Amino acid sequence: MAQVSVRKVVKAYEGGVQAVKGIDLEIADHEFVVLVGPSGCGKSTTLRMIAGLEEISDGEIAIGGRVVNDIPPRDRDIAMVFQNYALYPHMTVFDNMAFGLMLRKFDKAEIKRRVDNAARILDITPLLERKPKALSGGQRQRVAMGRAIVRDPKVFLFDEPLSNLDAKLRVQMRTEIKKVHQTVKTTTIYVTHDQVEAMTLADRVVVMNGGIIEQVGPPQELYHNPKTRFVAGFIGSPAMNFIQGRLEQASGALRLALPGDIYFNVPAERTARYASHAGKEVTFGIRPEHLTETKNLDRPNVATMTAVPEVTEPMGMETLVHFKINGAEICSRVDPSAPAQPGVPLALAADLNHMHILDTQTGRVL
Ligand SMILES: Nc1ncnc2c1ncn2[C@@H]1O[C@H](COP(=O)(O)OP(=O)(O)OP(=O)(O)O)[C@@H](O)[C@H]1O
Ligand SMILES: [Mg+2]
């Protein structure tokens, strides 16, 4: 059993700065959880407190049901992989992976069994006799993961393990890490600032911001049902569009009034949800893929609007169209065959089935 519980955990550094402001998080056995958020939001601090490398100022952390607040890192039965994985240059790959086990006085046959098994999982068996300098960046990263796997810990902790790799290798190693987890099923907590990495790896994503947890959920849920403006804007690329507007009653129906005389009728099934905000300023949120060339106009809750593109970016499978509404940068994703050209008015369809309305003051999604 290796669930991890983080209860009301606070980290205050000298000078009173709270890097982590009382977070709660329950991680299940075998789960792969990714902490994601902008630089300085407290991801590494949280991970290091779980590892025991950083003392906690308040609250409680339990691993496998045992409170570990006062247990030193080496007795927590965790293995950590960092961005700077620092292999021993004078040792072979085998010895790099075996070293931690030798220090712990494992017998030789058991060490060999574990290293061979980890090498097989990571597909580095032919490299076992090489020194690190004869390895590529991706191969070194695999050895660093191998060092963690041979320990057979209760929990893997990763802190931005792929940020030293180039873009292509990063995507490849991301898949490798997912495969390894599917094989060994060890509970994993993974820190990254890259929302794509978070979405693709995680069973559940934890979005952090300024020392608090904004939202926890499976990737699809965070994408489709963000609860705050921060999560709505952080998850997804290109990011969700936000436009300031007003909800108003017009001839008995609720509609959204946006700058430039754009009026969208609120879908009937949502009017009860927004009714109490009639007459108030709100923020309209819509993802670029729900603002697209005019199609599906016969479907309920799909409305048209006209945009004058400033820039168009052909991506191959789609074209990104950038324009402004009342100063706000808006991005739409259209089919490459759509007649999108800078300066030429373009009809777009907004799929309001996927829109979000936010309380502008609180940033909560209504
Ligand atoms: N030893 C320290 N003393 C004082 N403040 C610190 C210390 N370590 C971290 N902090 C502060 O705590 C906050 C959280 O830092 P943390 O390293 O957890 O961020 P992060 O989310 O991992 O960011 P990044 O993506 O840049 O790695 C930051 O504001 C940082 O400046
Ligand atoms: Mg960090």
Ligands: adenosine-5'-triphosphate, magnesium ion
Please state how the strands of the largest beta sheet are arranged side by side: 6-7-8-3-9-10
Radius of gyration: 25 Å
Order of helices and strands: EEEHEEEHHHEHEHEEHHEEEHEEEEEEEE
Main sheet summary: 6 strands, mixed
Binned, the helix content reads 10-25%
Look at the helices and sheets and give the structural class: alpha+beta
Distance between the termini: 38 Å
Helix tally equals: 9
Number of strands: 21
If you had to describe this structure to a student in words, what would you say it looks like?
The structure is a single chain. With 366 residues, the protein is an alpha+beta fold. It is 25% helix and 33% strand. It contains 9 helices and 21 strands. The strands form 5 sheets. A 6-stranded mixed sheet has the order 6-7-8-3-9-10, with helices on both faces. Strands 13-12-11-14-21 form a 5-stranded antiparallel sheet. A 4-stranded antiparallel sheet has the order 2-1-4-5. A hairpin with a 4-residue loop joins strand 17 (311-314) and strand 18 (319-325). The chain is elongated. The mean pLDDT is 93. Residues 43-44 line the site of magnesium ion. Residues 43-44 line the site of magnesium ion (MG).
Ordered list of secondary-structure elements with their pairings:
Blueprint: E1 4-12, E2 18-27, E3 32-36, H1 43-51, E4 58-63, E5 66-67, E6 78-81, H2 93-103, H3 108-122, H4 137-150, E7 155-159, H5 167-184, E8 187-192, H6 195-201, E9 204-209, E10 212-217, H7 219-224, H8 229-234, E11 241-250, E12 253-258, E13 262-265, H9 271-274, E14 281-286, E15 291-293, E16 302-307, E17 311-314, E18 319-325, E19 328-334, E20 346-351, E21 356-359
Parallel strand pairs: 3-8, 3-9, 6-7, 7-8
Antiparallel strand pairs: 1-2, 1-4, 4-5, 9-10, 11-12, 11-14, 12-13, 14-21, 15-20, 16-20, 17-18, 18-19
The structure holds adenosine-5'-triphosphate and magnesium ion.
